[in-house]
Task: structure prediction
Amino acid sequence: MQYSIPLTPYNDFWMNCILNSHYTIASQLEPSYKYASYMNDYSYKTWGAAIDYSFMTPTIEVLDYSTNWDKYILSKVIVKEEPIFFKDMDHFVEELKHIILEKKQLVKIHVDLFYWLPKNIAWEKFHMSHYSIINGYDPETNMYAVLDDDIEGYRTHEVPEERLIRAFMNSTAVTTPANGEPHAFTYQFNDEIEPYQLSIRDVRRNAERLVEELAQFSFDGLWDIKAAADQFDDYISISLIGINIIENRHLGNNFLIQSLVEIGQIDEALGKEMSRANKRIQQGWKAIKQIFINKTLSDDKQLNLNLIHAKGKELLEMEKEMWSLTLVAAK
Amino acid sequence: MESTVESRVREIFKTYSVVMSEDELDTPIDELWGIDSITHVQILTATAQEYNFKISDEDFLFSDLTTFNNIVAFVKKKSA
Result:
C-alpha cells in the first residue's frame, strides 16, 4: 500500500465520521489535539432520518465544525477543505490516484454507504451518503486504504476499486448534482500548528451553556416510529446512530474528567464525584441502547416510549448536575 | 436449581465465545473480552428464549443486566 499520509484512526470514542476523521488528522499532525476531542463543546440536537425526515431522533452535535469553521477548535490545524469535482467521471479513479500517489494529499470522497463497508450499519440496508477518507492505494491489489466507521468503530479498511466506483457513482454528489455537493475534498493544513492546551476555563464555559440547554431539551415526539413492520428495523438502526453518538460522548466525558485531574485543572475529589455521575449516565444510555438493539433481535416491535423518554429526561438531569459541579467548584 | 441456571447461562455465553473465570462473574459484561453491545443483547435474548420469558424495556432499564451474576439472579426471578 502506498500512502499519501499514513494515519492512525482516532478511536478514543466515536463522535461521528466527520469528527473522528478530523481528530485522526489533527492528532497525527499534533498529538496534543487528542485532548481537544474531549472538550464538552457539544449540544443535544434532533435530526430527521435520511429515509423519512419526519422521524426525529436525538443525537449530539459538536459546535461550530459544520457551521462556523473559523471558531472551530481544529481550524488551527485544518485551515480549509478544498472541494473537488472530477473532470472525467468515467475515469475519476485516475484523478483520485494522482491526488493520493503524486500529489501525496489526503482526500475524502463521497460514497453511498449502502455499497461501502460490509460492517457499516447502512450496508445493503439503506442509502446514505457521506465523505470517507482515502489515504492510500495499492497498485498490485488495486485496493484503496480507507478510514471510516462501522459497528467496530472508526478504523482502517481496504476497499477494492470496483466497490469504490460503485459507492461513489451512487453517492448523492453524483446522482443529484443539483445539490452542489463536491465529489471529494482535499485538506489544507496550517504550516505551524501550536500544541493544544486543555483548560478548565473552557470546560466551565461549556458547562454553563450545557446546564441551560439540558434543562430545555425535550424528548417529546422523538423515536416515534410509525412505520410498517417491515421497515421498523431501519428506523431502529437510524435511532441507534444517535444513541451511539450520545453514549460515546459520555465515554469522551470520562476522558475529559480524567485528563483534567491528570493535568491538575481539577482536584481529585471533584474528579471522583464527576466520574461517579458520569458512570451512571453512561450506564443509563447503554441501557437505552440495549432496548433498541433488542427490538432488532426479537419479535417485540413496540417501544415503550413514555418509559424511554422518562429515562432520557432523567439522564439529562443527571448530566446537568454533573456539569454544575464544575461551576460550584469555581466559586 | 441454582447450579443448573448458572451452568446453562454459562453455556449460552460460550456459544457467543465468552468464557469467564470465577472472578469475572461480577465484572461488567462489556469489560469482558469479545463482548460488544450487540453480543450482550444477543446473550440476554438467548437466555430469555432458553427460559421462555421476554425481556421488557423496563427490564433493560431497571434490572441491571450488566454482569453474569446479575443475569443469573434475573433469570431465577423471572422463572420463579
User: Anything to note?
Assistant: The beta strands of chain A are 2-3, 42-49, 52-62, 78-84, 107-112, 129-138, 143-150, 153-160, 184-189. Residues 200-330 of chain A form one domain. Chain A has two domains: 2-31+78-189, 200-330. The mean pLDDT of chain A is 94.
